Amino acid sequence: MTKPAPREPMRRDSRSNRARILATARQELGQNPDITLEELARVSGVVRRTLFGHFPGRAALLEALAEEAAETLRGAVTEGRRPGERAERALAWFTLALWPVGDRYRLLLALARQDLGVDRVTDILAPAREEVTAILERGQREGVFHTHLPPAVLSAGLEALILALVQSVNTGALDDDGTRVAAAGVQEQRAATVVEETAAALGTTS
Fold first, then answer.
1. Dist CA 120 CA 69 (whole Å)
2. Residue 36 carries which DSSP code?
């Protein structure tokens, strides 16, 4: 039986075109969610045939962005995980590590709910949700976080808050780098100290 020919690596110019299309899509979808693929090709500086060669339809483009988002999020989750830290500082560290990811993929997740389905979005966010839920659960046991809501519910609320704050930053309504939500759930007098300590450790303070 003849073995199938190995798949040829994507040529450098083809990889460059694909990366440029994806980068442009992230930016343009943030400005105009209804942009057509033809318009996107023009803004990307490629011909229509090139764009459709990589992404034969809107669903394929969004799926590529979703997979890119999932990979980036997994990396951020790994980078932001601090199991040895106190719960309030672990949450601040994790939130600050994920803030740039939320900023980049905020609109993609909103589009994915309609175009790719809630299950796909749930898969993308699952690693972050599980990590935050575990931190909140530990913090409730330690008496750091309020216990009036279950950890999973608090985690979902924190996720929604982060995305809402990112949206406010993008529209210019808020000037923030993630520090205002980084210690969410911690008593106010302690929250500022926690965020300052964590930001200093991350090297984000001036």
1. 12
2. -
